[in-house]
Amino acid sequence: MKPEQVEETENSPQVAGDVIGDTAYSERFVLKILLKLANLDTLKEEIKEKAFEDDVCILWDMTAERDVVLFLQKHDVLKLFNFALPVIEMPRIIEIIVGIIGNMCCQKEVVNVLMKMDNLLTILIEYINTDDSLVLVQLLRLVSACLFLASEEELAIWMDLFVTVEYSSALYFILKNSSHKVLLVTALENLNTLCSYCNTDKFRTKFFTHFIVPEALDSLISAFTEITVNQKEGCIKDELERILVVSLQIALNLVGFDKSQEIYSHSTESVVTMVNVILKYYEDKLVINKEIDSDLVCIVDSTNTIVKALEITSAPDKYFDLSYSIWKASSSIIKSDQNGSSFEENDKEELKEFVAKVKPSLATLICNYLSTCTDDNLLKVLDDIGTDYEDIISWVKDKELLSIVRNRATNYRTRLKDNVDS
Questions:
Q1: Quick one: which of 321, 343, 347, 323 has its CA closest to 333?
Q2: Nearest to 96 by CA among 141, 60, 48
Q3: pTM of the model
Q4: For helices 167-177 and 204-211, what crossing angle results, to 10°?
Q5: Beta-carbon neighbour count of residue 359 at 10 Å?
Q6: How many CA atoms does the CB half-sphere of 291 hold within 13 Å?
Q7: Which of 229, 388, 365, 372 is nearest to 297 (CA)?
Q8: H or E stretch at 330
């Protein structure tokens, strides 16, 4: 369905003056909709008509154009929505209007006006408690758009709103219980935006109090699992990789507080499962598909931080085996593998640069495992590593970690020698 556009008619001078800015969209078409929204006496009946839904849906599409947004602002459309939304009960119309406001909030001028409209902000933010998935999608997009353009003063307003409506509880409930893929993806993006713009020095205490709660990590991982495991076949490659990266970024923010280990002590197994899924994906990409992905460096660095912050211990197959597999692939990345395939078609300098960046991170992750695993698992993984041990520890820059690993490995070798001698 396309917005009404100017057509050639007999009174072309009048029609030519009907266009909005540099677009081909009609001012009269928009004004007709605004008049209907302004007439609260007839609005309840008007919204039941399919034609009205079609028209506001067209307007929604039109708001992708800046000139249309500015035209709507000129006619105080936010004030109209402020009066109209309380009398509208149809979820579809609410979805469209929230979507229109969300599109408009891609423009800084609109965000500035909206942030001064306390009543409309309250109406909008309270939709976080609706059970309509499509309304939630548009609300989350609107909030993310506003946070992206918000000043510090405006961020303070949002933080107060989040606390007032218990936004984190509603958001974590969505992440934990929904199976609606678009909603889950949008909710993850929203949480990532919250972490990026609200977990700052000025708001860190309030962010910790409101968002760093025991259910946060479990909710994140529930959504992550639903998308990347249960609905993996419905994800295109770029979308899936975005979810992998965003989920790790969120986890990184959630575990970045002094009390995170205590708060999330019950979630470590779930976190390891998420790490396993992510590393397995990038192992397949590198080892099987021979694809170099620079994101892998950040992925491994983030995993290191999370593993250390939560003091995670696990069986080797959770993350050690994958880390070591990626290590071996990166060690022979310029050479042909045993099947004759190679990375030769890539630029060799670029490959060397990649290896130089990823190896320290991988070595640290492997050594983090060696430093905390059980004695039985230590024996197993040191056997697996074999002659690669010295090469691996040579890339580790953390002297304290290096000392712990060397001491454990020395004890292992001493016991092994004693057993052989006896």
A1: 343
A2: 60
A3: 0.90
A4: 50
A5: 22
A6: 10
A7: 365
A8: helix 316-331
Spatial separation of the C-alpha atoms in residues 344 and 347, rounded to whole Å: 7
Residue 336 identity: S
How close are the terminal C-alpha atoms of the chain, in Å?
84
Residues forming beta bridges with residue 25, ordered by sequence position: 5
Cα 385 from chain centroid (whole Å): 35
Give pLDDT tens digits for 289-346: 988 999 999 999 999 999 999 999 999 999 999 999 999 999 887 665 444 455 555 5
CA distance linking residue 66 with residue 19, whole number of Å: 14
Q: To 10 degrees, what angle do helices 91-104 and 77-84 make?
A: 150
SS3 state of residue 19? strand
Six token digits for residue 177: 């219980």
Dihedral-angle region of residue 107 (phi above 0 means left; psi in -120 to 50 means alpha; beta otherwise):
beta
CATH 3.40.720.10 fits 1-162, yes or no: no
Q: Rounded to the nearest 10 degrees, what angle do helices 215-225 and 268-283 cross at?
A: 30
Q: What is the dihedral of CA 345, 348, 354, 357, to 10 degrees?
A: 160
Q: What is the rounded distance in angstroms from the CA atom of residue 338 to the CA atom of residue 142?
A: 52
**3-class DSSP state for residue 227?**
helix
Positive or negative torsion for Cα 254, 256, 257, 263: positive
CA dist 48 → 44, 51, 52, 285, 380 (Å):
7, 9, 8, 51, 68
Residue with tokens 């409101």: 210
Q: Position of tokens 């899936």?
A: 240
Record the tokens describing residue 272, joined without a space.
């390891």
CB proximity list for 180: less than 8 A, separation 6 or greater: 133
CB contact at 8 A, 195 and 253: yes
Enter the DSSP assignment of 400. H
Cα(117)–Cα(78) distance, rounded to whole angstroms? 9
Comparing C-alpha atoms, which of 108, 61, 104 is closest to residue 80?
Answer: 104
Q: Which two tokens stand for residue 337?
A: 């593998």
pLDDT per residue as tens digits for the range 156-173: 999 999 999 999 999 999
